[in-house]
Amino acid sequence: MVLGLLQGVSELFPVSSLGHSVILPRLLGWNIHQNDPYFLTFLVATHLATAIVLLGFFRRDWVRIVRGLGRSLREREIAPDDVDAKLGWLLVVGTIPAGILGLLLEHKLRHIFASPRSAAFFLILNGFLLYGAELLRRRAPQTSSDDDARIARQVGWRGAFLVGAAQAIALVPGFSRSGATMGGGLIVGLSHKDAARFAFLLATPIIGAAAVLKLPELFGHQGSGVRGQALVGALCSAVTAYLAVRFLMRFFETNRLTPFAVYCVLAGAGALLYLVLS
Amino acid sequence: MPRHPALTALAVVAGIALIVLAIVYWAEPAGSLPSWIPGHQAGSGHHHVKHGIASFLVGLACLVYAWFATGGKRSAHARS
């Protein structure tokens, strides 16, 4: 339950869910290793729950986006005034590099950087990355209304590709996917709220696809004995993910990434100090 | 979308080649892959499913690019 609750929050907060799920069990003295098959199976269930929550939260947007994609394919062009189609293809362009890098590098990186110490170190770097994005961000208006036209106009193809590729950094435990995409969004000129919205839309297919790809492990022999725990974890994760996305969409109407940057540096430094001394 | 016939033709060829490569990855174990294909491991019975998905996605992206580059009602009207 604790890991499920934690996963739901930290998957969407820009603080690295994978980093927390590597560090926290060690700090609490739990005998869990992130490369254990049953733990990976557990993560699959919580990721699937998070993806479903994101899909549900932005369901109206996704319906419009999918219709826009279909319309543009039928017309064989992206009409300048078709915001849904443009946003849809921006999400596709952003998802492809992250998906390919994830497919090819996930296994290797997960094994190389599996230790809690390295996760704590990268959590500190994640804090600096978030703060750096705040320093480098272009002037963007603070807006309270959802306006996909603004995102579609501001991001552009190259921006979408780079922001999407930045998600791959989250394969290293300690770096945050949503932090990388929100930071990237700020750098290409989005407001905090638009950057968060684009990051969550971009996260949905990636998190969902990663979970669906590993579903056979959940329902196969690796899932034997942990499906009950995985289901409870997934439900807890779904609840906290829903609360997290609701909170963050309001939070970024008026706030910045700085509090998360400070948290990452302090939590990472504290964890690293404890792990080195203990 | 600006028209680049050579780039479009290249995208079609690359798209088809990558989708064929994806099918090869899914169908053949790592040991049976030609040695010049990434992922070849002599004697291995492992199927590179993820390599296949990555190859398929890039191939599909190339074909989608070609689809847009060779179509467009409004741009066709604008040209006429």
What does it look like?
The complex is a heterodimer of chains A (278) and B (80). In chain A, 78% of the residues lie in helices and 0% in strands. By secondary structure, chain A is mainly alpha-helical. Chain A has one domain. In chain A, helix 2 runs antiparallel to helix 6. Chain A is globular and about 60 Å long. Chain A starts with a helix and ends with a helix. The mean pLDDT of chain A is 86. With 80 residues, chain B is mainly α. Chain B has one domain. Chain B contains three helices and no strands. The chains are: A mainly alpha (278), B mainly alpha (80).
List the helices and strands and how they pair.
The complex is a heterodimer of chains A (278) and B (80).
Chain A: H1 2-12, H2 17-27, H3 37-57, H4 59-75, H5 83-112, H6 116-136, H7 148-166, H8 177-187, H9 192-213, H10 215-219, H11 227-254, H12 258-277
Helix pairs in contact in A: 1-2, 1-3, 1-11, 2-6, 3-9, 3-11, 4-5, 5-7, 5-9, 6-8, 6-12, 7-8, 7-9, 8-9, 9-11
Chain B: H1 5-27, H2 49-69, H3 73-79
Helix pairs in contact in B: 1-2
How would you summarize this macromolecular structure in one to three sentences?
Chain A is mainly α.
- Structural class designation of chain B: mainly alpha
Number of helices of chain B: 3
Summarize the biggest pleated sheet of chain A.
none
Nearest-integer average pLDDT of chain B:
84
Helix content of chain B: 55-70%
**Number of self-contained structural domains of chain B:** 1
Q: List unreliable stretches of 5+ residues of chain A.
A: none
Give the beta-strand count of chain A: 0
CA(first)-CA(last) distance of chain B: 16 Å
Strand content of chain A: under 5%
**Rg of chain A computed from alpha carbons, rounded to a whole number of angstroms:** 18 Å
Helix/strand-derived class of chain A? mainly alpha
Name the biggest interface.
A-B, 14 and 17 residues
Order of helices and strands of chain A: HHHHHHHHHHHH
- Low-confidence blocks of residues of chain B: none
